[in-house]
Amino acid sequence: MLSGSTTTTVGAPVRLTLRLTDELGLPAPTFTALAVSLEHDSATGAFDTVFEGNYDGTVTAVTIPAHQTSVTLYYRDTAAKLVNLAATAPV
Length: 91
Hints:
Layout: E1 2-4, E2 14-19, E3 34-40, E4 45-48, E5 61-64, E6 70-77, E7 85-88
């Protein structure tokens, strides 16, 4: 589950949390590190792993460490628009 603020200011990063949950919505820790692909549908937006990052498009995945249930990431867009964000992991 990807969660975070649903409103942003143009050019300001928004903090997101990517959580692993089971079918009941309960936290589900991973036993090994899990790489998760990140996607967005904006040509002017980008992810980063730190608030003060470069947001240059090089962050296209994050890793949830072994025995953890979440990871924090950030998204920033330089244009005002509705953006769809997605995170996918291998099944």
